[in-house]
Structures are given as C-alpha cells and as structure tokens.
C-alpha cells in the first residue's frame, strides 16, 4: 500500500455516503476496515464465486458497533478483540459453526484464550489478523536513547513533536505501560488514575491525534512530528517513501499488541454459506503474504504465518520480543467505557 492508496482509503472513511463502497457479490456483505477489501487476502473466495463480496467500511471499532446496533445490516464484521463482548452483550452476533471452518484448528491458541471468544455455547469470534503498537520515530532527528523509554512522550524536548492515535484503546495501552501496568484486565483505581495523569502530561506534547495510518504517515513524512505511538502498518508506507523510520518495540516499559477478527452478525441479509467461504478463504495459509503486503499485519493461522516468518516486516514488527507486552485482549466493558470518557476529557484539555 502506498501513501497515495492509503490516502484514498482515508477519503472513503471520511465519506459515510460511500458505504457500501465496493459493490460486488450481492449475497455477502462484509463490514470492514478500509484496505481489507484487497482480493489477495481472500483470493479463494473469488476463485470459487467469480467476484469478491460487497464491502461496507468504517473508521473505528466504536463507530462500527454503533452502526450495527442502530440497524445497519451486514453478514460479517471485523472488530478487534476488545469489542467482542460488547457485540455479544447486545445480542448482535451468533456463534460460528466451527466444524465448517477447518483452519480454526491452526489459529495460534493465544488468540482464542478467552471465554468471550469461545465457550460452551460455541465459537463467537474468529481471530484473523494481528499487529503491534509501539514507538515510530524519525531516526535522523530522534536519538535511539530517547526512544529507549516511553517517557519520550512526556519529555519536554518533544513538545509539539509527538502524535498519538485517536483511539482510546491504543492510548490507554500506552498510558498503562508507561506507568508500569502490562495487564489491563485487572486495573485498580489507583493504576487508572496514574495512567490518566500520565496521559495528561503526554497530551502537552501532542501536535495532533492521528485518525488513521495515512494521516500518521503524512504527519511524519512532512516533518510535522518526529515521534508517534503507532501501529506497525505505517512502517512499509514510510519505508516506501524513503523516510528514515524506526520502530521501537523494546522500550524499557514495553509495547502493545492487538488482534482483530470476524463475528457472524445475526439476521445477515446474505448467504450464510458464502460467509463461511469468505472466512475459509481469509484463513487460508496462502493469504498470509497478501495480508502482509497490503496491510502489514500477521495472519493468525500459524501455518500461514510460517510462510512469511523470515520477512523483515514480520521480524521487526510482529515477532515476539524480549520486553513487556500489553496485549489488547477483552477487558471489562465498564472499564473500557470509563477509559473512553476519560480520553475525551484528556483530548479536550481537562
């Protein structure tokens, strides 16, 4: 994906009237992040049906949930892990028939290690792709020693030179890590407050909260910011432009990981059989290189990930590290709502 292509994606995100943005197979509607419509990710579906599904796009997880909860109809959606309990609690999804998805057996077990995803009622969630969130920085203007710690985000020397994602989940992952918390499923009031206080200090250095990788890439490429708390998919974008990009995942306090996947929406208007064909195509080991090339993320299917294990993008952006990691797994919905409210206050300067 080039910056030009990702910018086009951003325009799609900014124009809700364009959804569904890509009309193809009328018997399957996939509600997804822009960029995941690339055929190389689900080629076997096209091979079987002659065309890809119809895609509708959203800009962030909370927006997607609100649209589905308000009555938007699709067959499958692609939330990240911490949203699944919200869909379940609202009665918006139904379990998958695991017997119809053989590759579930090849999904790395760590991605299914939650009763939110799989319980005695069935398989509610199919983890499909994963990435990391860490410190992206300009290697020509930012010394390595400065990015050895997440405290760079509160370092007065970087006032007006940093950018954070406009995502409560990623920002709170940063705040918790920076204040010594690596498990956000068990956070005390004191730990919450410490992270909030730290994020308020970090806010003083923020030039802008980036909304998507395209915006972040442009901010860094233009020189507007030198340091960002970043998803790993920005690396190939900036490397392709010759930007001196570094990605620090092993800061003293650590970095974060996230994963996303597919839910089976209740009362989908399309074909249930085609929904399973789509999931099976997505999880096919051959999809791993397409996912890496177009998005920069790893496939949760271990057989697929093995085919790209030596790729530098996997080694530097996705492989296991010797440093603390906060995994963005499902946490208490009330805690997540509390974080959302507090994040809005922080951004507003309160």
Automatic annotation (TrEMBL):
<keyword id="KW-0732">Signal</keyword>
<feature type="signal peptide">
    <location>
        <begin position="1"/>
        <end position="23"/>
    </location>
</feature>
<protein>
    <submittedName>
        <fullName>Spermidine/putrescine transport system substrate-binding protein</fullName>
    </submittedName>
</protein>
<dbReference type="Pfam" id="PF13416">
    <property type="entry name" value="SBP_bac_8"/>
</dbReference>
<dbReference type="InterPro" id="IPR006059">
    <property type="entry name" value="SBP"/>
</dbReference>
């Amino acid at each position: 994906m080039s910056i030009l292509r990702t910018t086009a994606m951003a325009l799609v995100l900014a124009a809700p009237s364009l959804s569904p943005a890509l009309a193809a197979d009328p018997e399957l509607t996939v509600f997804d992040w822009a960029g995941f419509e690339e055929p190389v990710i689900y080629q076997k579906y096209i091979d079987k049906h002659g065309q890809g599904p119809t895609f509708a796009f959203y800009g962030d997880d909370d927006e997607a949930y609100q649209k589905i909860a308000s009555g938007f109809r699709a067959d499958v959606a692609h939330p990240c892990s911490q949203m699944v309990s919200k869909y379940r609690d609202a009665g918006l999804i139904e379990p998958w028939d695991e017997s119809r998805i053989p590759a579930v057996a090849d999904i790395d077990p760590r991605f299914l290690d939650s009763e939110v995803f799989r319980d005695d009622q069935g398989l509610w969630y199919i983890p499909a792709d994963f990435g990391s969130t860490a410190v992206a920085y300009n290697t020509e203007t930012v010394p390595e020693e400065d990015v050895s710690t997440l405290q760079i985000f509160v370092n007065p020397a970087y006032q007006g030179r940093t950018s954070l994602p406009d995502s409560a989940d990623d920002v709170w992952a940063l705040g918790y890590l920076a204040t010594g918390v690596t498990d956000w499923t068990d956070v005390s009031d004191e730990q919450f407050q410490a992270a909030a206080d730290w994020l308020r200090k970090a806010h003083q250095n923020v030039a802008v909260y980036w909304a998507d990788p395209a915006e972040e890439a442009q901010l860094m490429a233009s020189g507007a910011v030198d340091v960002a708390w970043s998803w790993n998919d920005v690396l190939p974008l900036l490397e392709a432009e010759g930007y001196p990009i570094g990605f620090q995942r092993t800061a003293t306090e650590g970095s974060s990981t996230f994963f996303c996947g597919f839910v089976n929406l209740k009362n989908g208007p399309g074909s249930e059989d085609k929904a399973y064909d789509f999931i099976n195509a997505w999880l096919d080991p051959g999809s791993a290189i397409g996912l890496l090339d177009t998005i920069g993320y790893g496939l949760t299917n271990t057989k697929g990930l093995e085919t790209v294990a030596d790729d530098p993008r996997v080694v530097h952006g996705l492989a296991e590290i010797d440093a603390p990691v906060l995994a963005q797994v499902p946490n208490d919905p009330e805690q997540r709502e509390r974080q959302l409210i507090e994040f809005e206050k922080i951004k507003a300067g309160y």
